[in-house]
Amino acid sequence: MKKIIFKSFLLLWTVLLACSCNDLLEEKAYDFVSPEQLGDSESAASQLVTGTYNTVITSFIAPGSYLYLTNMDCDYASGASWAFGNVGAGNPQGFWGIDHMWQGSYTLIHRANLGISKISAMNNLTPESKQDALAQLCFLKAWAYFNLVRNYGPVPIFRKSISEGEAMSQPRASVSDVYTHIIELLEQAEGMYSKDDSGFVAGRASSGAAKALLAKVYVTMASGAMSGVPIVVKGGDPNIFEPQPITHIAKTVAGYESFDPAKYYALARDKAWEVINEYTLFDNYMDVWAIGNRNKGEHIWMAQAISGDKDFGNTICQDYVGIFKEDGTMEGNWYGMRDHWYLLFEEQDTRIVDGVIHRYASDGISNGKVIYNYYPRWYADKVENKEVYDSQGNAFDGTEVYHEGQGWTLAKLTKFTFVTDRKQKNSDFHFPLLRLPDIMLIYAEAVNELNGGPDAEAYNQVNRIRTRAHATPFSGMNQDEFRSAVLEERARELAYEADRRYDLFRWGIYLDVMNAIDMDEHNVTKRRLERNLLYPIPTSEVNSNDKIDSNNPGW
Protein backbone atom coordinates (compact mmCIF):
# COMPACT_ATOMS: atom_id res chain seq x y z
CA MET A 1 0.00 0.00 0.00
CA LYS A 2 2.82 2.42 0.82
CA LYS A 3 4.10 2.44 -2.74
CA ILE A 4 0.65 3.33 -4.08
CA ILE A 5 0.15 6.04 -1.48
CA PHE A 6 3.50 7.63 -2.19
CA LYS A 7 2.66 7.75 -5.89
CA SER A 8 -0.69 9.32 -5.14
CA PHE A 9 0.44 11.90 -2.65
CA LEU A 10 4.13 12.69 -3.08
CA LEU A 11 4.06 13.09 -6.83
CA LEU A 12 2.26 16.04 -8.37
CA TRP A 13 -1.23 15.00 -9.39
CA THR A 14 -1.97 15.18 -13.08
CA VAL A 15 -5.34 16.83 -13.53
CA LEU A 16 -7.17 16.94 -16.84
CA LEU A 17 -8.48 20.44 -17.41
CA ALA A 18 -12.00 19.54 -18.38
CA CYS A 19 -15.32 20.40 -16.87
CA SER A 20 -17.52 18.34 -19.15
CA CYS A 21 -17.55 15.13 -21.13
CA ASN A 22 -17.34 17.13 -24.37
CA ASP A 23 -14.18 18.81 -23.15
CA LEU A 24 -12.74 15.44 -22.26
CA LEU A 25 -13.43 14.00 -25.69
CA GLU A 26 -12.56 17.02 -27.80
CA GLU A 27 -9.36 18.36 -26.30
CA LYS A 28 -6.80 17.03 -23.87
CA ALA A 29 -4.89 19.78 -22.11
CA TYR A 30 -2.70 19.06 -19.10
CA ASP A 31 -1.47 21.10 -16.22
CA PHE A 32 0.83 19.63 -13.60
CA VAL A 33 -0.46 20.98 -10.33
CA SER A 34 -0.84 19.67 -6.82
CA PRO A 35 -4.31 19.63 -5.24
CA GLU A 36 -3.17 22.41 -2.89
CA GLN A 37 -2.52 24.72 -5.84
CA LEU A 38 -6.02 24.40 -7.27
CA GLY A 39 -7.61 26.89 -4.89
CA ASP A 40 -11.23 27.17 -3.77
CA SER A 41 -13.65 27.38 -6.67
CA GLU A 42 -16.16 25.47 -8.75
CA SER A 43 -13.41 24.86 -11.30
CA ALA A 44 -11.05 23.51 -8.65
CA ALA A 45 -13.65 21.06 -7.36
CA SER A 46 -14.48 19.95 -10.90
CA GLN A 47 -10.82 19.34 -11.67
CA LEU A 48 -10.42 17.21 -8.56
CA VAL A 49 -13.44 15.12 -9.51
CA THR A 50 -12.37 14.81 -13.16
CA GLY A 51 -8.85 13.84 -12.15
CA THR A 52 -10.26 11.08 -9.98
CA TYR A 53 -12.54 9.85 -12.79
CA ASN A 54 -9.53 9.68 -15.08
CA THR A 55 -8.17 6.98 -12.78
CA VAL A 56 -10.99 4.69 -13.94
CA ILE A 57 -9.62 5.05 -17.46
CA THR A 58 -5.87 5.08 -16.84
CA SER A 59 -5.74 2.44 -14.08
CA PHE A 60 -8.58 0.12 -15.15
CA ILE A 61 -9.77 0.36 -18.75
CA ALA A 62 -6.82 1.64 -20.80
CA PRO A 63 -4.25 -0.93 -19.59
CA GLY A 64 -6.63 -3.78 -20.42
CA SER A 65 -5.89 -5.67 -17.21
CA TYR A 66 -9.21 -4.90 -15.49
CA LEU A 67 -11.26 -6.40 -18.32
CA TYR A 68 -8.86 -9.32 -18.62
CA LEU A 69 -9.24 -10.17 -14.93
CA THR A 70 -13.02 -9.80 -14.99
CA ASN A 71 -13.86 -11.31 -18.40
CA MET A 72 -11.48 -14.19 -19.08
CA ASP A 73 -11.94 -16.33 -15.98
CA CYS A 74 -15.37 -17.77 -16.74
CA ASP A 75 -17.05 -20.64 -18.54
CA TYR A 76 -18.02 -19.14 -21.90
CA ALA A 77 -14.94 -16.99 -22.68
CA SER A 78 -12.04 -18.45 -24.63
CA GLY A 79 -9.36 -17.90 -27.23
CA ALA A 80 -5.92 -19.03 -28.23
CA SER A 81 -4.14 -20.91 -25.45
CA TRP A 82 -1.33 -18.33 -25.38
CA ALA A 83 -3.90 -15.61 -24.60
CA PHE A 84 -5.74 -17.69 -21.99
CA GLY A 85 -2.77 -19.49 -20.48
CA ASN A 86 -2.74 -17.47 -17.25
CA VAL A 87 -5.94 -15.87 -15.92
CA GLY A 88 -8.08 -17.80 -18.38
CA ALA A 89 -6.50 -21.06 -17.24
CA GLY A 90 -6.66 -20.38 -13.51
CA ASN A 91 -3.04 -19.21 -13.25
CA PRO A 92 -3.41 -15.47 -12.54
CA GLN A 93 0.07 -15.10 -11.07
CA GLY A 94 1.47 -15.55 -14.56
CA PHE A 95 -0.43 -12.50 -15.81
CA TRP A 96 1.53 -9.26 -16.14
CA GLY A 97 -1.40 -7.24 -14.80
CA ILE A 98 -2.35 -9.44 -11.85
CA ASP A 99 -1.74 -6.66 -9.30
CA HIS A 100 -3.55 -3.96 -11.26
CA MET A 101 -6.99 -4.58 -9.75
CA TRP A 102 -5.64 -4.05 -6.24
CA GLN A 103 -3.34 -1.17 -7.13
CA GLY A 104 -5.85 0.60 -9.35
CA SER A 105 -8.62 0.31 -6.78
CA TYR A 106 -6.55 1.78 -3.98
CA THR A 107 -5.17 4.50 -6.22
CA LEU A 108 -8.78 5.45 -6.97
CA ILE A 109 -9.71 5.31 -3.27
CA HIS A 110 -6.78 7.46 -2.18
CA ARG A 111 -7.40 10.06 -4.85
CA ALA A 112 -11.09 10.16 -3.96
CA ASN A 113 -10.24 10.54 -0.27
CA LEU A 114 -7.88 13.41 -1.02
CA GLY A 115 -10.53 15.05 -3.21
CA ILE A 116 -13.12 14.70 -0.45
CA SER A 117 -10.71 16.29 2.02
CA LYS A 118 -10.00 19.27 -0.24
CA ILE A 119 -13.56 19.85 -1.47
CA SER A 120 -15.02 19.56 2.04
CA ALA A 121 -12.89 22.54 3.05
CA MET A 122 -14.00 24.72 0.11
CA ASN A 123 -16.34 27.65 0.78
CA ASN A 124 -16.90 29.06 -2.70
CA LEU A 125 -19.12 26.31 -4.10
CA THR A 126 -22.88 26.27 -4.33
CA PRO A 127 -24.41 23.75 -1.91
CA GLU A 128 -25.67 21.71 -4.86
CA SER A 129 -22.34 21.46 -6.67
CA LYS A 130 -20.47 20.72 -3.45
CA GLN A 131 -22.86 17.91 -2.60
CA ASP A 132 -22.56 16.52 -6.11
CA ALA A 133 -18.75 16.64 -6.10
CA LEU A 134 -18.49 14.85 -2.75
CA ALA A 135 -21.12 12.31 -3.82
CA GLN A 136 -19.21 11.62 -7.06
CA LEU A 137 -16.10 10.76 -5.08
CA CYS A 138 -18.07 8.54 -2.70
CA PHE A 139 -19.45 6.68 -5.72
CA LEU A 140 -15.97 6.05 -7.12
CA LYS A 141 -14.76 4.80 -3.75
CA ALA A 142 -17.73 2.43 -3.52
CA TRP A 143 -17.08 1.08 -7.02
CA ALA A 144 -13.44 0.46 -6.10
CA TYR A 145 -14.33 -1.36 -2.87
CA PHE A 146 -16.94 -3.46 -4.69
CA ASN A 147 -14.21 -4.59 -7.08
CA LEU A 148 -11.89 -5.33 -4.18
CA VAL A 149 -14.26 -7.32 -1.98
CA ARG A 150 -15.45 -9.53 -4.84
CA ASN A 151 -11.92 -10.28 -6.00
CA TYR A 152 -9.96 -10.42 -2.74
CA GLY A 153 -12.49 -10.95 0.06
CA PRO A 154 -11.52 -9.06 3.25
CA VAL A 155 -9.58 -5.90 2.34
CA PRO A 156 -8.25 -2.78 4.11
CA ILE A 157 -10.62 0.18 4.41
CA PHE A 158 -9.36 3.77 4.18
CA ARG A 159 -12.14 6.05 5.36
CA LYS A 160 -10.23 9.30 5.00
CA SER A 161 -7.18 10.80 3.39
CA ILE A 162 -3.67 10.08 4.63
CA SER A 163 -3.31 13.87 4.80
CA GLU A 164 -6.00 13.82 7.50
CA GLY A 165 -4.07 11.35 9.62
CA GLU A 166 -5.21 7.98 8.28
CA ALA A 167 -2.57 5.32 8.97
CA MET A 168 -0.80 4.06 5.88
CA SER A 169 -1.09 0.40 6.91
CA GLN A 170 -4.58 -0.90 7.60
CA PRO A 171 -5.72 -4.43 8.51
CA ARG A 172 -8.08 -6.39 6.30
CA ALA A 173 -11.67 -5.58 7.22
CA SER A 174 -14.22 -8.40 7.14
CA VAL A 175 -16.36 -8.92 4.05
CA SER A 176 -19.37 -7.76 6.06
CA ASP A 177 -17.63 -4.55 7.14
CA VAL A 178 -16.51 -3.80 3.59
CA TYR A 179 -20.08 -4.16 2.31
CA THR A 180 -21.37 -1.96 5.12
CA HIS A 181 -18.90 0.72 4.03
CA ILE A 182 -19.86 0.33 0.36
CA ILE A 183 -23.53 0.83 1.22
CA GLU A 184 -22.72 3.91 3.32
CA LEU A 185 -20.77 5.39 0.42
CA LEU A 186 -23.49 4.67 -2.14
CA GLU A 187 -26.19 6.14 0.07
CA GLN A 188 -24.13 9.33 0.11
CA ALA A 189 -23.56 8.97 -3.63
CA GLU A 190 -27.31 9.10 -4.22
CA GLY A 191 -26.86 12.81 -3.58
CA MET A 192 -25.25 13.21 -7.01
CA TYR A 193 -27.08 15.13 -9.71
CA SER A 194 -29.59 13.04 -11.60
CA LYS A 195 -28.95 12.55 -15.30
CA ASP A 196 -31.64 15.15 -16.05
CA ASP A 197 -30.28 17.90 -13.77
CA SER A 198 -28.77 20.91 -15.50
CA GLY A 199 -25.54 20.47 -13.54
CA PHE A 200 -25.02 16.86 -14.60
CA VAL A 201 -21.87 16.20 -16.63
CA ALA A 202 -22.32 13.49 -19.28
CA GLY A 203 -19.78 10.73 -18.81
CA ARG A 204 -19.83 10.95 -15.04
CA ALA A 205 -22.05 8.93 -12.75
CA SER A 206 -25.42 10.23 -11.61
CA SER A 207 -27.76 9.49 -8.72
CA GLY A 208 -29.21 6.78 -10.95
CA ALA A 209 -25.78 5.16 -11.22
CA ALA A 210 -25.52 5.09 -7.42
CA LYS A 211 -28.92 3.36 -7.24
CA ALA A 212 -27.88 0.89 -9.95
CA LEU A 213 -24.65 0.02 -8.20
CA LEU A 214 -26.54 -0.35 -4.92
CA ALA A 215 -28.86 -2.84 -6.62
CA LYS A 216 -25.83 -4.85 -7.78
CA VAL A 217 -24.32 -4.73 -4.30
CA TYR A 218 -27.56 -5.88 -2.68
CA VAL A 219 -28.14 -8.74 -5.12
CA THR A 220 -24.54 -9.90 -4.65
CA MET A 221 -25.00 -9.96 -0.88
CA ALA A 222 -28.35 -11.73 -1.13
CA SER A 223 -27.37 -14.46 -3.58
CA GLY A 224 -23.98 -14.89 -1.90
CA ALA A 225 -25.79 -15.83 1.32
CA MET A 226 -28.07 -18.38 -0.39
CA SER A 227 -27.47 -22.12 -0.24
CA GLY A 228 -29.16 -25.34 -1.20
CA VAL A 229 -31.15 -24.07 -4.18
CA PRO A 230 -30.66 -25.62 -7.64
CA ILE A 231 -29.31 -23.67 -10.59
CA VAL A 232 -29.07 -25.15 -14.06
CA VAL A 233 -26.15 -23.97 -16.20
CA LYS A 234 -25.76 -25.17 -19.77
CA GLY A 235 -22.22 -26.24 -20.55
CA GLY A 236 -20.12 -29.22 -19.58
CA ASP A 237 -18.11 -31.42 -21.95
CA PRO A 238 -17.04 -29.31 -24.96
CA ASN A 239 -16.92 -32.43 -27.12
CA ILE A 240 -20.71 -32.59 -26.95
CA PHE A 241 -22.10 -30.22 -29.56
CA GLU A 242 -25.03 -28.87 -27.55
CA PRO A 243 -24.30 -27.39 -24.12
CA GLN A 244 -25.71 -29.80 -21.57
CA PRO A 245 -28.04 -28.62 -18.79
CA ILE A 246 -26.22 -29.41 -15.54
CA THR A 247 -27.82 -28.81 -12.16
CA HIS A 248 -25.58 -27.19 -9.56
CA ILE A 249 -26.47 -26.45 -5.95
CA ALA A 250 -25.84 -22.93 -4.66
CA LYS A 251 -23.34 -22.62 -1.82
CA THR A 252 -22.95 -19.73 0.60
CA VAL A 253 -19.92 -17.63 -0.32
CA ALA A 254 -17.29 -17.33 2.41
CA GLY A 255 -17.83 -14.10 4.33
CA TYR A 256 -21.48 -13.78 3.27
CA GLU A 257 -22.91 -16.01 6.01
CA SER A 258 -24.28 -13.13 8.09
CA PHE A 259 -26.29 -11.56 5.28
CA ASP A 260 -30.07 -12.07 5.24
CA PRO A 261 -31.05 -13.04 1.67
CA ALA A 262 -34.66 -11.86 2.05
CA LYS A 263 -33.58 -8.46 3.39
CA TYR A 264 -31.07 -7.80 0.66
CA TYR A 265 -33.20 -9.19 -2.15
CA ALA A 266 -35.95 -6.79 -1.05
CA LEU A 267 -33.49 -3.91 -1.11
CA ALA A 268 -32.20 -5.02 -4.53
CA ARG A 269 -35.75 -5.23 -5.90
CA ASP A 270 -36.72 -1.78 -4.65
CA LYS A 271 -33.53 -0.06 -5.76
CA ALA A 272 -33.61 -1.74 -9.17
CA TRP A 273 -37.20 -0.59 -9.64
CA GLU A 274 -36.14 3.02 -9.04
CA VAL A 275 -33.53 2.67 -11.78
CA ILE A 276 -35.93 0.96 -14.20
CA ASN A 277 -38.28 3.93 -13.89
CA GLU A 278 -35.51 6.42 -14.63
CA TYR A 279 -33.75 4.93 -17.67
CA THR A 280 -34.94 3.88 -21.13
CA LEU A 281 -34.18 0.68 -23.01
CA PHE A 282 -33.21 1.23 -26.65
CA ASP A 283 -35.81 -0.18 -29.04
CA ASN A 284 -33.25 -2.01 -31.18
CA TYR A 285 -30.39 -4.06 -29.77
CA MET A 286 -27.73 -2.79 -32.18
CA ASP A 287 -28.64 0.81 -31.30
CA VAL A 288 -27.17 0.12 -27.87
CA TRP A 289 -23.69 0.26 -29.37
CA ALA A 290 -24.08 3.13 -31.82
CA ILE A 291 -21.48 5.84 -31.27
CA GLY A 292 -24.20 8.48 -31.17
CA ASN A 293 -25.91 6.70 -28.29
CA ARG A 294 -23.00 6.75 -25.88
CA ASN A 295 -23.96 8.00 -22.40
CA LYS A 296 -27.63 7.90 -23.41
CA GLY A 297 -30.68 5.69 -22.99
CA GLU A 298 -29.87 2.50 -21.13
CA HIS A 299 -26.23 3.44 -20.54
CA ILE A 300 -26.15 4.35 -16.87
CA TRP A 301 -22.38 4.74 -16.62
CA MET A 302 -19.72 4.23 -19.29
CA ALA A 303 -15.94 4.45 -19.22
CA GLN A 304 -15.04 7.32 -21.53
CA ALA A 305 -12.30 7.04 -24.16
CA ILE A 306 -10.44 9.11 -26.77
CA SER A 307 -9.48 7.58 -30.13
CA GLY A 308 -5.77 7.50 -30.84
CA ASP A 309 -4.78 8.64 -27.37
CA LYS A 310 -2.17 6.56 -25.56
CA ASP A 311 -3.53 7.51 -22.13
CA PHE A 312 -7.28 7.74 -22.72
CA GLY A 313 -7.73 5.30 -25.58
CA ASN A 314 -8.06 1.55 -25.04
CA THR A 315 -7.30 -1.66 -26.91
CA ILE A 316 -10.75 -3.22 -26.47
CA CYS A 317 -11.52 -3.14 -30.20
CA GLN A 318 -8.13 -4.60 -31.09
CA ASP A 319 -8.32 -7.33 -28.47
CA TYR A 320 -11.91 -8.50 -28.98
CA VAL A 321 -12.62 -7.96 -32.69
CA GLY A 322 -9.38 -6.77 -34.27
CA ILE A 323 -8.20 -3.62 -36.01
CA PHE A 324 -7.48 -3.25 -39.72
CA LYS A 325 -3.96 -3.01 -41.07
CA GLU A 326 -3.15 -1.09 -44.24
CA ASP A 327 -3.33 -4.24 -46.38
CA GLY A 328 -6.85 -5.03 -45.17
CA THR A 329 -5.81 -7.89 -42.90
CA MET A 330 -6.62 -8.00 -39.22
CA GLU A 331 -4.46 -7.46 -36.16
CA GLY A 332 -5.67 -8.65 -32.77
CA ASN A 333 -9.09 -10.31 -32.59
CA TRP A 334 -7.88 -12.66 -29.87
CA TYR A 335 -10.82 -13.11 -27.50
CA GLY A 336 -14.24 -14.53 -28.17
CA MET A 337 -17.17 -16.54 -26.88
CA ARG A 338 -17.36 -20.31 -27.09
CA ASP A 339 -19.79 -22.37 -29.16
CA HIS A 340 -21.67 -23.36 -26.01
CA TRP A 341 -22.43 -19.68 -25.42
CA TYR A 342 -23.55 -19.17 -29.03
CA LEU A 343 -25.87 -22.17 -28.76
CA LEU A 344 -27.70 -20.63 -25.80
CA PHE A 345 -29.52 -18.42 -28.31
CA GLU A 346 -32.45 -19.09 -30.58
CA GLU A 347 -31.39 -18.77 -34.20
CA GLN A 348 -33.44 -15.59 -34.77
CA ASP A 349 -32.00 -13.75 -31.75
CA THR A 350 -30.56 -10.40 -32.85
CA ARG A 351 -27.77 -10.76 -30.33
CA ILE A 352 -26.23 -13.46 -32.52
CA VAL A 353 -27.75 -12.60 -35.91
CA ASP A 354 -26.27 -9.09 -35.80
CA GLY A 355 -24.43 -9.15 -32.48
CA VAL A 356 -21.90 -11.76 -33.62
CA ILE A 357 -19.50 -11.23 -36.53
CA HIS A 358 -20.03 -14.09 -38.98
CA ARG A 359 -17.40 -13.11 -41.55
CA TYR A 360 -14.17 -11.41 -40.56
CA ALA A 361 -10.75 -10.81 -42.03
CA SER A 362 -7.86 -12.95 -40.83
CA ASP A 363 -4.23 -11.87 -40.50
CA GLY A 364 -3.27 -13.56 -43.77
CA ILE A 365 -3.32 -13.04 -47.56
CA SER A 366 -3.53 -15.72 -50.26
CA ASN A 367 -3.07 -15.02 -53.97
CA GLY A 368 -3.31 -11.31 -53.25
CA LYS A 369 -6.59 -11.68 -51.41
CA VAL A 370 -7.35 -11.22 -47.75
CA ILE A 371 -8.29 -14.55 -46.20
CA TYR A 372 -11.62 -14.50 -44.38
CA ASN A 373 -12.83 -16.60 -41.49
CA TYR A 374 -16.40 -17.57 -40.78
CA TYR A 375 -18.30 -18.24 -37.60
CA PRO A 376 -19.82 -20.57 -36.68
CA ARG A 377 -18.13 -23.44 -38.49
CA TRP A 378 -21.40 -24.57 -40.04
CA TYR A 379 -21.70 -21.06 -41.49
CA ALA A 380 -18.38 -21.61 -43.27
CA ASP A 381 -19.79 -24.74 -44.86
CA LYS A 382 -22.67 -22.67 -46.24
CA VAL A 383 -20.17 -20.19 -47.69
CA GLU A 384 -18.22 -22.93 -49.41
CA ASN A 385 -21.45 -24.15 -50.95
CA LYS A 386 -22.23 -20.57 -52.02
CA GLU A 387 -25.37 -20.48 -49.89
CA VAL A 388 -24.43 -17.17 -48.24
CA TYR A 389 -24.80 -13.87 -50.06
CA ASP A 390 -23.39 -10.37 -49.71
CA SER A 391 -25.52 -7.22 -49.56
CA GLN A 392 -25.72 -7.15 -53.38
CA GLY A 393 -27.06 -10.69 -53.53
CA ASN A 394 -23.81 -12.20 -54.79
CA ALA A 395 -22.67 -15.53 -53.36
CA PHE A 396 -19.41 -15.30 -51.43
CA ASP A 397 -16.52 -16.95 -53.23
CA GLY A 398 -16.05 -20.27 -51.48
CA THR A 399 -12.32 -20.21 -52.19
CA GLU A 400 -11.82 -17.42 -49.67
CA VAL A 401 -12.96 -19.59 -46.77
CA TYR A 402 -10.18 -20.23 -44.33
CA HIS A 403 -10.82 -23.10 -41.95
CA GLU A 404 -8.85 -22.29 -38.84
CA GLY A 405 -9.91 -25.51 -37.20
CA GLN A 406 -12.06 -26.18 -34.19
CA GLY A 407 -9.57 -24.69 -31.77
CA TRP A 408 -9.71 -21.24 -33.34
CA THR A 409 -13.34 -20.57 -34.12
CA LEU A 410 -14.94 -18.16 -31.69
CA ALA A 411 -17.95 -15.86 -31.61
CA LYS A 412 -16.62 -12.31 -31.91
CA LEU A 413 -19.01 -9.66 -30.63
CA THR A 414 -20.06 -6.85 -32.95
CA LYS A 415 -20.48 -4.41 -30.05
CA PHE A 416 -16.72 -3.93 -29.88
CA THR A 417 -16.51 -2.70 -33.49
CA PHE A 418 -18.29 0.55 -32.63
CA VAL A 419 -15.30 2.86 -32.56
CA THR A 420 -14.47 6.02 -34.47
CA ASP A 421 -11.44 4.60 -36.29
CA ARG A 422 -10.93 0.85 -36.49
CA LYS A 423 -7.33 1.28 -37.58
CA GLN A 424 -6.36 2.75 -34.24
CA LYS A 425 -4.76 0.47 -31.67
CA ASN A 426 -5.85 2.87 -28.93
CA SER A 427 -9.47 3.31 -29.92
CA ASP A 428 -12.47 4.94 -28.26
CA PHE A 429 -14.80 2.09 -27.31
CA HIS A 430 -16.87 3.32 -24.38
CA PHE A 431 -17.08 0.32 -22.06
CA PRO A 432 -20.48 -0.07 -20.35
CA LEU A 433 -19.83 -0.20 -16.61
CA LEU A 434 -23.53 -0.04 -15.70
CA ARG A 435 -26.31 -0.82 -18.19
CA LEU A 436 -30.08 -0.98 -17.69
CA PRO A 437 -30.64 -4.64 -18.75
CA ASP A 438 -28.33 -5.70 -15.92
CA ILE A 439 -30.60 -3.91 -13.45
CA MET A 440 -33.78 -5.26 -15.05
CA LEU A 441 -32.49 -8.80 -14.63
CA ILE A 442 -31.53 -8.04 -11.03
CA TYR A 443 -35.12 -6.95 -10.42
CA ALA A 444 -36.48 -10.16 -11.94
CA GLU A 445 -34.09 -12.31 -9.92
CA ALA A 446 -34.99 -10.56 -6.67
CA VAL A 447 -38.74 -10.86 -7.21
CA ASN A 448 -38.39 -14.55 -8.01
CA GLU A 449 -36.52 -15.25 -4.78
CA LEU A 450 -38.83 -13.15 -2.63
CA ASN A 451 -42.13 -14.43 -4.04
CA GLY A 452 -41.30 -18.09 -4.47
CA GLY A 453 -41.53 -17.64 -8.23
CA PRO A 454 -41.82 -14.96 -10.91
CA ASP A 455 -44.75 -12.57 -11.06
CA ALA A 456 -46.00 -10.66 -14.10
CA GLU A 457 -43.54 -7.80 -13.65
CA ALA A 458 -40.55 -10.13 -13.27
CA TYR A 459 -41.52 -11.74 -16.58
CA ASN A 460 -42.04 -8.32 -18.11
CA GLN A 461 -38.55 -7.11 -17.28
CA VAL A 462 -36.85 -10.18 -18.74
CA ASN A 463 -39.13 -10.28 -21.76
CA ARG A 464 -38.51 -6.62 -22.61
CA ILE A 465 -34.90 -7.64 -23.17
CA ARG A 466 -35.77 -10.82 -25.03
CA THR A 467 -38.45 -9.39 -27.32
CA ARG A 468 -36.13 -6.55 -28.30
CA ALA A 469 -33.77 -9.26 -29.55
CA HIS A 470 -36.65 -11.16 -31.23
CA ALA A 471 -36.25 -14.04 -28.77
CA THR A 472 -39.25 -16.01 -27.52
CA PRO A 473 -40.67 -14.52 -24.30
CA PHE A 474 -40.40 -16.54 -21.11
CA SER A 475 -43.54 -17.99 -19.55
CA GLY A 476 -44.82 -20.78 -17.32
CA MET A 477 -41.73 -21.28 -15.15
CA ASN A 478 -41.47 -22.25 -11.51
CA GLN A 479 -39.01 -20.58 -9.13
CA ASP A 480 -36.08 -22.90 -9.85
CA GLU A 481 -36.57 -22.71 -13.62
CA PHE A 482 -36.83 -18.93 -13.58
CA ARG A 483 -33.71 -18.60 -11.40
CA SER A 484 -31.71 -20.56 -13.96
CA ALA A 485 -33.30 -18.74 -16.89
CA VAL A 486 -32.39 -15.31 -15.50
CA LEU A 487 -28.78 -16.34 -14.90
CA GLU A 488 -28.62 -17.66 -18.47
CA GLU A 489 -30.17 -14.47 -19.84
CA ARG A 490 -27.46 -12.51 -18.05
CA ALA A 491 -24.87 -14.63 -19.88
CA ARG A 492 -26.52 -13.82 -23.20
CA GLU A 493 -27.20 -10.11 -22.74
CA LEU A 494 -24.10 -9.09 -20.77
CA ALA A 495 -21.43 -11.09 -22.59
CA TYR A 496 -17.94 -9.69 -22.03
CA GLU A 497 -19.30 -6.86 -19.87
CA ALA A 498 -17.40 -7.96 -16.74
CA ASP A 499 -20.31 -9.81 -15.11
CA ARG A 500 -20.17 -13.56 -15.78
CA ARG A 501 -17.39 -14.51 -13.34
CA TYR A 502 -19.10 -12.53 -10.59
CA ASP A 503 -22.47 -14.13 -11.35
CA LEU A 504 -21.04 -17.62 -10.92
CA PHE A 505 -19.10 -16.53 -7.84
CA ARG A 506 -22.03 -14.94 -6.02
CA TRP A 507 -24.13 -18.09 -6.40
CA GLY A 508 -21.29 -20.26 -5.10
CA ILE A 509 -21.23 -22.36 -8.28
CA TYR A 510 -18.09 -21.02 -9.96
CA LEU A 511 -15.96 -24.09 -9.20
CA ASP A 512 -18.69 -26.56 -10.18
CA VAL A 513 -19.42 -24.86 -13.50
CA MET A 514 -15.77 -24.51 -14.47
CA ASN A 515 -14.79 -28.04 -13.49
CA ALA A 516 -17.72 -29.47 -15.45
CA ILE A 517 -15.95 -28.19 -18.59
CA ASP A 518 -12.45 -29.35 -17.61
CA MET A 519 -10.70 -28.42 -20.89
CA ASP A 520 -12.53 -26.41 -23.53
CA GLU A 521 -12.42 -26.89 -27.30
CA HIS A 522 -9.58 -24.36 -27.59
CA ASN A 523 -7.39 -26.36 -25.21
CA VAL A 524 -7.89 -23.78 -22.48
CA THR A 525 -7.93 -25.32 -19.02
CA LYS A 526 -11.13 -24.53 -17.15
CA ARG A 527 -10.28 -26.68 -14.12
CA ARG A 528 -10.23 -24.62 -10.93
CA LEU A 529 -9.23 -25.07 -7.29
CA GLU A 530 -10.55 -23.44 -4.11
CA ARG A 531 -7.81 -20.84 -4.32
CA ASN A 532 -9.27 -19.56 -7.60
CA LEU A 533 -12.28 -18.16 -5.75
CA LEU A 534 -10.14 -15.12 -4.88
CA TYR A 535 -7.18 -13.48 -6.54
CA PRO A 536 -3.85 -13.27 -4.69
CA ILE A 537 -3.08 -10.06 -2.81
CA PRO A 538 0.03 -8.43 -4.31
CA THR A 539 3.18 -9.75 -2.67
CA SER A 540 4.41 -6.19 -2.26
CA GLU A 541 1.34 -5.43 -0.14
CA VAL A 542 1.79 -8.46 2.10
CA ASN A 543 5.46 -7.60 2.57
CA SER A 544 5.02 -3.88 3.26
CA ASN A 545 1.76 -3.78 5.24
CA ASP A 546 2.54 -4.85 8.81
CA LYS A 547 -1.19 -5.39 9.44
CA ILE A 548 -1.40 -8.16 6.82
CA ASP A 549 0.55 -11.32 7.61
CA SER A 550 -0.72 -13.76 4.99
CA ASN A 551 -2.16 -13.96 1.51
CA ASN A 552 -5.47 -15.43 0.39
CA PRO A 553 -5.74 -19.23 0.83
CA GLY A 554 -3.62 -21.16 -1.64
CA TRP A 555 -1.52 -18.21 -2.78
Automatic annotation (TrEMBL):
Gene3D superfamilies attached to this UniProt entry: 1.25.40.390
Superkingdom of origin organism: Bacteria
Annotated RagB/SusD domain residues: 336-555
Compartments it resides in: Cell outer membrane
UniProt signal peptide: 1-18
InterPro entries: SusD-like_N, SusD_RagB_dom, TPR-like_helical_dom_sf
Keywords: Cell outer membrane, Membrane, Signal
Chief localisation class: membrane
UniProt domain SusD-like N-terminal: residue ranges: 100-218
Any one Pfam family match given in the protein's UniProt record, by short name: SusD-like_3
Keyword Membrane applies: yes
Family as reported in the entry's similarity comment: Belongs to the SusD family.
Designated name of the protein: RagB/SusD family nutrient uptake outer membrane protein
Biological source species: Bacteroides hominis
Lineage: Bacteria, Pseudomonadati, Bacteroidota, Bacteroidia, Bacteroidales
